[in-house]
């Protein structure tokens, strides 16, 4: 009764959750940080000390500016506060500079920028169908808030590994929330801002494009000038913004900026394979080559050498299956998201249909994209949280996708010091999402079928083998990459399964959601 | 959500906070030649692993007692020995005799931190959970909330995972003792407490209430056969446990005497460093250390401690209930902290443990006390480079206890148990709103502590008074503790039949 007293009538629980997670983030200030920390420090330095025209040409550090201009301006703004912490971090030549004040400033900047994320989450909660009279811990808005604010992936990627995803996802979620609130103009504006902050969000641009086109240009009921005008308004806004930023640069910079943003020289997979189709493809190739050698169908001397060292090499050469070109990945990606785009073109199904399509776009490009990072899985997990608290089937997909996707982020933190913390945080998030979604959809039996549950439980022995048993064995020295390979292949199965289920839910369930809407 | 998942979430959050604090520095990091408590613990592993038992407490050619000689009871030594075996397995350099002195490395720090986490999970955390589930009133959510706040008490986390000590072992064992007594398993309780006592001699601060509670209970059963038999069983348990712990040292009468001499170094003076107790604070006005002879100091501290311990012990003896027991633990340990001989600033954790146990009953005062106790260790924490975790954990703790336990809402005069204060003021100021005054005092004192923390970090003390801020911190904390000991004595001694009537209204 005491706990319920301060929380039922007002929104103080939201404040408490946000403050609580901020305290946790502050405790992580001295944790391990990856090279991304130096990347952002370098950007602070170069935006601070050089004129804008040279930002995309500067190459003292190997970590050149490869985010779009608006993010560079964001760093420029931050650099003016950074002066008060430690001026040395703003010198381009001070490579790998990491004084305590620098660490404090950079970490705090991530923590403070997350305020945008908090606001976006709050706006998202407003658009939920809320059933009143339940106790706080069973409320959809409470569950959604925890799923987003305490998201395991965001915590470790932003506050340990070091990046600014929280703030960027804040802009994305805010844009989604605006579409839910029928403020489409603001939603579109926010998305174009987001694209200018980080271009990886191009993955989900098709969903935005088709949705806006369908709902404001070619509405079936009144296909008139007005709706066309609406679309033009949005489109013009986009162009205006693009122009605005490009005008900030001297003419002729665009090719340079683009070459920094889209480096196609990298390989099909990242050093650690993201758990997608290509991980399965690679492992199939490897299995075939080993089998081939065993049954004397292949000559071991003719095989490309790198294929046996797997994940350590950027350029992975396939020995049996055909090699994959960037164009092929592009075609696969487009093919994978086309049905979803067609679907929302024919049956838009409101903002929820759009959101589902957006998740499919994000997951489709994660599954088939060129040189995908494992962190990109968050782009599917976070928006899916919104759907997960509203429908049973989505909750099920969310559980599978978030648990496997989050587990696949484990190799990101490879230091022993962070091992306990990633396990604690992962358990924390997983236990919460499992039990809260289970209570939310109490009626109708278990959320996961036995096979899915077994698969997810399999992650526990996998973790034990990969990080506790395997390092003690003799193979650690000869095949150090094997645990990573095992992790990404095992997780790839779960992510693929979730992708297929998500597609099925899109193609079959829209009628039932329609019924709810008409009710 | 089910209870088990709420509990596991709380425990996981507690563990996360603990491990995150452990990323920070420890005492004496990179400070040769003596280093700090971290090196002391490592050195004990080295000594216990390499030397035969009879050399552990003696100054021998292989054992230099001046370099962090073992001065804790045998159980600590055994614990060090077990850790040393694991260390030897991982990296023999960590415990090599002589050669490992001052050994510091990242992986060794991880190993040491992991040993703390391991014992914490094994002993302290389950005890806290069990305590909250058996002895806290209210809904299951409120029990979880109380457990959560206790687990996040910053003082213990900062000292164990920052500064580096194994307080969670001795405090955890003492808590198991309290649990045993509360559940009526007196033998188990006295066994656990004897183990605690054999882990850290500072647990003596808690021993008097244990003794009085058990004795009072035996007296209540009648001074006939039953009561005597019960007393006999308890004392046998204690004696046997003691004997087992001290077994290796009993062969030669010189051995236990030397151990005792190491445990109670009377020669080290009335107080060391800056402690928030009476003597150190009084020292600002009168230089007692030089003014009085050692014997007078000893006598004075003994007399004053006895004076402050006596009322609560007698009350407990006459009324051995769990509530009285908890309060007596607070009062006795606080009296020992304030008045006894050779007190360390970290000993305030011994008072903090029983205060944690009254968290659910008097949330506001408990929060206030626990924050003050953390603040009183500020000079130590600053020396260890733990400013960031100190600030973050203290703020988080303040926020959580105000939010989850509604400490500010649950502070009517009745709930704050201000009976005596009301009686005193009724005559002259009948309209005084005591509850509001307490709240104002609470905020005012927090502001003062925050301000003093801020100045200690940011301002340089004047050249003439280099110890200005540590002294101010200990004097301010001392004043708080003085207030607290009066308050808690008042709560314990004034407790009328109100508890019963309150239960009825519930």
From TrEMBL, chain A:
The organism is: Cyprinus carpio (Common carp)
The EC category is: transferase
Assigned protein family: Belongs to the ALG6/ALG8 glucosyltransferase family.
Q: What is its EC number?
A: 2.4.1.-
- Cite the source lineage: Eukaryota, Metazoa, Chordata, Craniata, Vertebrata
The name under which this protein is listed is: Alpha-1,3-glucosyltransferase
Report the main location listed first in the record: endoplasmic reticulum
The membrane-spanning stretches of this chain are 12-32, 136-156, 200-221, 353-370, 421-441, 453-475, 481-504
| Topology class, membrane | Multi-pass membrane protein
**Pathway this chain belongs to:** Protein modification; protein glycosylation
What GO terms in the biological process aspect are recorded for it? protein N-linked glycosylation
TrEMBL record, chain B:
Enzyme class at the top of the EC tree: transferase
Keyword terms: Endoplasmic reticulum, Glycosyltransferase, Membrane, Signal, Transferase, Transmembrane, Transmembrane helix
Transmembrane annotation, as ranges: 110-132, 144-161, 173-197, 229-250, 323-341, 348-371, 387-408, 440-459, 471-489
Protein name (Swiss-Prot/TrEMBL): Alpha-1,3-glucosyltransferase
Which residues does UniProt assign to the signal peptide?
1-22
Catalysis: reaction(s): an alpha-D-Man-(1->2)-alpha-D-Man-(1->2)-alpha-D-Man-(1->3)-[alpha-D-Man-(1->2)-alpha-D-Man-(1->3)-[alpha-D-Man-(1->2)-alpha-D-Man-(1->6)]-alpha-D-Man-(1->6)]-beta-D-Man-(1->4)-beta-D-GlcNAc-(1->4)-alpha-D-GlcNAc-diphospho-di-trans,poly-cis-dolichol + a di-trans,poly-cis-dolichyl beta-D-glucosyl phosphate = an alpha-D-Glc-(1->3)-alpha-D-Man-(1->2)-alpha-D-Man-(1->2)-alpha-D-Man-(1->3)-[alpha-D-Man-(1->2)-alpha-D-Man-(1->3)-[alpha-D-Man-(1->2)-alpha-D-Man-(1->6)]-alpha-D-Man-(1->6)]-beta-D-Man-(1->4)-beta-D-GlcNAc-(1->4)-alpha-D-GlcNAc-diphospho-di-trans,poly-cis-dolichol + a di-trans,poly-cis-dolichyl phosphate + H(+)
Q: Where found? A: Endoplasmic reticulum membrane
Query: Is DNA damage there in the keyword field?
Result: no
- Topology term for the membrane: Multi-pass membrane protein
Q: Main site of residence?
A: endoplasmic reticulum
Q: What is its EC number?
A: 2.4.1.-
User: What GO cellular component term, any one, is given?
Assistant: endoplasmic reticulum membrane
Gene source species = Cyprinus carpio (Common carp)
């Amino acid at each position: 009764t005491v706990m319920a007293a301060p929380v039922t009538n007002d929104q103080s629980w939201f404040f408490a959750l946000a403050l609580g997670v901020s305290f946790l983030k502050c405790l992580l200030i001295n944790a391990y940080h990856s090279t991304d920390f130096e990347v952002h420090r370098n950007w602070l330095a170069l935006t601070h000390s050089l004129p804008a025209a040279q930002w995309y040409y500067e190459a003292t550090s190997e970590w050149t500016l490869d985010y779009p201009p608006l993010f560079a301006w964001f760093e420029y703004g931050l650099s003016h506060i950074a002066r008060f912490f430690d001026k040395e971090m703003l010198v381009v030549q001070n490579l790998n500079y990491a004084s305590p004040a620098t660490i404090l400033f950079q970490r705090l900047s991530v923590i403070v920028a997350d305020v945008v994320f908090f606001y976006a989450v709050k706006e998202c909660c407003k658009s939920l169908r809320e059933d009143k009279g339940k106790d706080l811990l069973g409320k959809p808005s409470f569950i959604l808030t925890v799923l987003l604010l305490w998201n395991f992936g965001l915590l470790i990627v932003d506050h340990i590994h070091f990046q600014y995803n929280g703030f960027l996802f804040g802009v994305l979620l805010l844009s989604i929330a605006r579409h839910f609130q029928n403020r489409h103009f603001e939603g579109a504006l926010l998305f174009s801002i987001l694209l200018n902050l980080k271009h990886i969000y191009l993955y989900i641009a098709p969903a935005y494009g088709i949705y806006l086109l369908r709902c404001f240009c070619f509405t079936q009921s009144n296909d008139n000038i007005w709706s066309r005008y609406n679309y033009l308004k949005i489109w013009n806004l986009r162009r205006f913004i693009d122009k605005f930023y490009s005008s900030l640069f001297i003419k002729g910079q665009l090719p340079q900026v683009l070459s920094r943003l889209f480096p196609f020289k990298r390989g099909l997979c990242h050093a650690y394979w993201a758990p997608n189709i290509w991980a399965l493809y690679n492992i199939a190739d490897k299995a075939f080559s080993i089998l081939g050698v065993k049954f004397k169908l292949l000559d071991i001397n003719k095989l490309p050498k790198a294929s046996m060292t797997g994940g350590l090499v950027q350029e992975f050469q396939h020995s049996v299956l055909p090699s994959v070109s960037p164009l092929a990945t592009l075609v696969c990606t487009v093919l994978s998201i086309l049905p979803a785009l067609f679907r929302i073109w024919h049956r838009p199904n409101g903002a929820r249909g759009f959101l589902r399509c957006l998740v499919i776009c994000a997951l489709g490009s994660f599954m088939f994209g060129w040189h995908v990072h494992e962190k990109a899985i968050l782009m599917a997990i976070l928006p899916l949280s919104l759907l997960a608290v509203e429908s049973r089937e989505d909750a099920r997909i969310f559980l599978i996708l978030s648990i496997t996707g989050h587990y696949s982020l484990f190799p990101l933190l490879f230091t022993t010091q962070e091992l306990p913390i990633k396990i604690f945080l992962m358990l924390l998030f997983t236990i919460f999402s499992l039990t809260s979604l289970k209570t939310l959809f109490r009626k109708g039996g278990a959320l996961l079928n036995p096979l899915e549950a077994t698969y997810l439980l399999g992650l526990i022995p996998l973790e034990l083998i990969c990080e506790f048993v395997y390092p003690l064995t003799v193979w650690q020295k000869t095949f150090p990459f094997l645990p990573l390979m095992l992790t990404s292949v095992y997780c790839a199965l779960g992510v693929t399964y979730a992708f297929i289920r998500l597609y099925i839910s899109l193609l079959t369930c829209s009628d039932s959601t329609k019924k709810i809407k008409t009710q | 959500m089910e209870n088990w998942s709420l509990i596991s979430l709380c425990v996981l959050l507690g563990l996360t906070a603990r491990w995150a604090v452990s990323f920070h520095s420890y005492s004496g990091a990179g400070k040769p030649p003596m280093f700090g408590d971290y090196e002391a613990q490592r050195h004990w592993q080295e000594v216990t692993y390499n030397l035969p038992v009879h050399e552990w407490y003696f100054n021998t050619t292989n054992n230099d007692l001046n370099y962090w000689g073992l001065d804790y009871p045998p159980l600590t030594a055994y614990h060090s020995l077990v850790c040393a075996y694991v260390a030897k397995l991982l990296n023999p350099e960590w415990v090599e005799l002589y050669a490992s002195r001052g050994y510091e490395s990242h992986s060794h720090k991880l190993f040491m931190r992991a040993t703390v986490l391991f014992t914490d999970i094994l002993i302290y955390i389950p005890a806290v959970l069990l305590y909250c589930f058996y002895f806290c009133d209210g809904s299951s959510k409120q029990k979880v909330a109380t457990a959560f706040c206790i687990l996040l008490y910053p003082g213990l986390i900062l000292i164990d995972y920052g500064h580096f000590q194994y307080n969670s072992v001795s405090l955890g064992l003492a808590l198991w003792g309290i649990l045993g007594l509360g559940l009526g398993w007196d033998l188990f309780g006295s066994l656990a407490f004897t183990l605690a006592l054999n882990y850290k001699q500072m647990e003596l601060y808690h021993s008097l209430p244990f003794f009085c509670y058990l004795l009072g209970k035996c007296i209540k059963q009648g001074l006939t056969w039953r009561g005597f038999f019960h007393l006999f069983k308890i004392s046998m348990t204690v004696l046997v446990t003691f004997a087992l712990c001290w077994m290796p040292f009993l062969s030669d009468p010189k051995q236990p005497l030397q151990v005792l001499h190491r445990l109670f170094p009377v020669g080290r003076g009335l107080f060391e460093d800056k402690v928030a107790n009476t003597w150190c604070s009084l020292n600002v006005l009168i230089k007692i250390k030089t003014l009085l002879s050692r014997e007078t100091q000893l006598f004075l501290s003994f007399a004053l401690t006895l004076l402050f311990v006596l009322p609560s012990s007698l009350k407990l003896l006459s009324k051995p209930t769990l509530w009285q027991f908890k309060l007596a633990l607070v009062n006795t340990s606080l009296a020992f902290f304030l008045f006894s001989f050779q007190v360390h600033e970290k000993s305030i954790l011994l008072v903090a443990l029983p205060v944690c146990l009254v968290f659910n009953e008097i949330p506001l005062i408990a929060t206030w006390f626990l924050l003050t106790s953390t603040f009183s260790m500020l000079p130590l924490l600053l020396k260890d480079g733990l400013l960031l975790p100190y600030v973050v954990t203290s703020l988080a703790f303040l926020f959580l206890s105000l939010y989850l336990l509604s400490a500010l809402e649950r502070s009517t005069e009745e709930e704050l148990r201000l009976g005596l204060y009301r009686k005193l003021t009724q005559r002259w100021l009948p309209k005084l709103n005591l509850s509001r005054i307490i709240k104002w005092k609470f905020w005012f004192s927090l502001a003062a502590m925050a301000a003093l923390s801020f100045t200690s970090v940011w301002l340089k003390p004047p050249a003439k008074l280099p110890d200005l801020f540590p002294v101010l911190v200990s004097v301010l904390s001392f004043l708080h503790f003085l207030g607290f000991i009066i308050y808690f004595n008042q709560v314990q001694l004034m407790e009328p039949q109100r508890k019963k009537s309150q239960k009825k209204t519930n």
